[in-house]
Amino acid sequence: MDRSSVLAADAAVAEALQGASEAVRHALAVTLRGCEELLPVADWVRKLRRSEATGQPLRIKLGLDPTAPDIHLGHTVVLNKLRQLQDLGHTVIFLIGDFTSLIGDPSGRNTTRPPLTPQQIKANAETYYQQASLVLDPARTEIRYNSEWSDALGARGMIELAAKYTVARMMEREDFTKRFRAGTPISIHEFLYPLMQGYDSVALKSDLELGGTDQKFNLLMGRHLQAEYGQEPQCILTMPLLEGLDGVEKMSKSKGNYIGITEDANTMFAKVLSISDELMWRWFTLLSFRSEAEIAALRAQVQQGRNPKEVKLELAREITARFHGAAAAARAEEDFHLRARGGVPDEIPEVRLGGAPLGIGVLLKQAGLAPSTSEANRLIDGGGVRVDGSVVTDKGLKLPAGTYVVQIGKRKFARVTLA
Prior knowledge:
Blueprint: H1 3-9, H2 11-16, H3 22-32, E1 37-39, H4 41-54, E2 59-64, H5 76-87, E3 91-96, H6 118-132, E4 141-145, H7 147-162, H8 167-170, H9 174-181, H10 188-204, E5 208-212, H11 216-228, E6 235-239, H12 265-273, H13 277-287, H14 292-303, H15 308-324, H16 326-340, E7 350-353, E8 358-359, H17 360-366, H18 373-381, E9 385-387, E10 390-391, E11 398-399, E12 402-408, E13 412-418
Parallel strand pairs: 2-3, 2-5, 3-4, 5-6, 7-13
Antiparallel strand pairs: 1-6, 8-11, 9-10, 9-12, 12-13
Helix pairs in contact: 3-4, 7-10, 10-11, 12-15, 12-16, 13-15, 15-16, 17-18
């Protein structure tokens, strides 16, 4: 969201900012950085001013259904924003949707999503928070589970809640509309999901709720229900979906264009460096904790002739250090430069195999460097296989007994002792 256009175009925002302190204006700038939408901006300014006047931190909510145990950098876009708001002194509520996971979020789906079992939810939730704590400040994070109040609602409470929203309004939701027009089944329980997510905001008395752009309907439901229950409605902040390594599709494990935050430091560092120069600036805005002024200065340096790879190295150092520490990031950078020069890292897997003389395709498979002999042969055809630094061109090569450094591409190595 472009900050200047928001403030210039909205008279209500300008009015809310009349006489506002520099701290409030800074907090608004931090909130708007990289976001897709902040609604309503004027209400958020008023909340910030009240917080400054009373010394009472605002309550900022992020709800996550633990549908998978691993977090990638795309998930951290919202977590980064939470950390920025924490650093302004506000309270972050990390809400685990253990109850709503039993329903299944229909957002953006063409079919009903199978609900998770309680056992899956518990295991995933534990891993989720451990990983999120690599971004958030645990000392300033309130962890809640929505089963605390959702289980207590009971049948009567659920009916009373459902009475606060109409079917017509529910059908304004794009994915429901598409499925209805296509004759695709919509289960009644799917209508309950946005209601329950909205009720979370009532239970937590949240001032601001964050989510991806695909969550806007659910976030607005929270505003509606808070008003129904006599509370001041929360503001909503949507963050864009992060493009993955390919720079085209959103980051996704299924698309293979992701960086998992628990991946080893060397892999993480090298993957960040693999993104395009253009995508780098998007990642700086959404993933870096540098100020906008610092990022603008880096961009100006590149425009004046600085090699963009040097700047990308700074991004790789920052992201790798966040999840692995500065020392590991420094070692990963050394490893990257060593591999780029064709060198062999100091620490590589040691593998012992029998059956000498052994065909190179079988060796690659047994050493865990290729998933199959056919894939090994494809790598050889592409010139991606080296033995002791020499490119292998013969798929029929058989290696006698001995010890060899076997390399696939720039990142995969093994010291293979063949007997």
